[in-house]
Specification:
about 20% strand; ten-stranded antiparallel beta sheet; about 290 residues; alpha+beta; 10 helices
């Protein structure tokens, strides 16, 4: 990994750990170990944003999550995340998301939150096809999943989505979507052997719920318990909806080639591999469990 990538990652890490404080270009230059001018130039080159814009968008997105999930006053969120005034925060929030933060807190709506992908975990692969010259990016991020339950519907012998739908039907997803999920949406999983029952499929669909979940379980569904684990999240570029199969194949090929030891991890195949619903506007996403080397 080159010095420029590592320098920008250090700046991103500094911003993340000092997000509620005043972050100056001098602070970032110190983290990068380069001059302020060159540090700012590198940062924009690799992240696509000037440091000030990156910090503003990250703070606004963090504030939106607090307004959605906590009973907290707008003025407290503004102060906690380093905005100089509540009026300035409200204007910035409206410019970024098109709504007032107080209105959003009362009735949350989907927002285009900024995701601060670490440049250290971003890789680029070329799709090796004669009829495709364009490069496609795959973004990689380490994330933690807590101890949880998963309400699942098992198939018979399915190892992928299409076989699963043939075995159990495609209406399972609607049932799962109606249940509140820890991650905000249903998931598909490839189950390791210890989570499977005789005569049931490797591939299942389910919804992640808290460990203390005691709500109803739909008929013919099962519940499994999963431990806390670290995952590498692989996310493709957005794609045209009709190209979802290409997007899936391309990302899975890239994931198969990826060597997690370059960032200090190894694969942990005792935990399920996870697939999210392929949506063209956000790209295709899979998660594979890892452990520290």
């Amino acid at each position: 990994m080159n010095d420029k990538t590592l320098a920008v990652q250090r700046m991103q890490d500094y911003i993340e750990s000092h997000l509620t404080e005043t972050v100056t270009l001098a602070d970032l230059a110190g983290a990068a170990r380069f001059s302020p001018w060159y540090a700012a130039r590198m940062f924009k080159e690799l992240t696509g944003l000037a440091p000030a814009d990156y910090i503003r968008r990250l703070r606004l997105s963090k504030s939106a999550l607090r307004l959605r999930d906590e009973q907290v006053k707008v003025i407290d969120v503004a102060c906690d995340l380093g905005f100089e005034s509540v009026d300035g925060y409200q204007r910035a929030f409206r410019r970024e998301f098109g709504c007032n933060p107080k209105e959003y807190a009362l009735r949350p709506i989907p927002l285009p939150l900024f995701t601060a992908y670490g440049v250290k975990f971003r890789e680029l692969w070329k799709k090796e096809r004669a009829d495709m010259a364009n490069e496609k990016s795959v973004f990689i991020q380490v994330m933690e999943k807590p101890t949880r339950k998963v309400v699942i519907k098992r198939g018979i012998a399915a190892a992928d989505y299409f076989a699963y739908c043939e075995e159990v039907g495609c209406d399972v997803w609607g049932v799962l979507t109606s249940m509140k999920s820890l991650c905000g949406e249903p998931v598909c999983l490839w189950l390791p052997e210890q989570y499977r029952k005789p005569g049931t499929s490797e591939y299942v669909q389910g919804v992640e719920v808290p460990t203390d979940y005691d709500g109803p379980v739909p008929e013919n569904f099962d519940v499994i318990n999963l431990p806390a684990a670290a995952y590498l999240m692989f996310q493709s570029e957005p794609f045209a909806e009709e190209d979802y199969c290409v997007a899936i194949d391309s990302l899975q090929a890239a994931m198969d080639k990826y060597e997690p030891s370059v960032i200090g991890y190894r694969w942990d195949d005792a935990n399920p591999r996870i697939q999210l619903e392929p949506r063209g506007e956000r790209g295709y996403i899979e998660l594979r469990a890892v452990k520290k080397v």
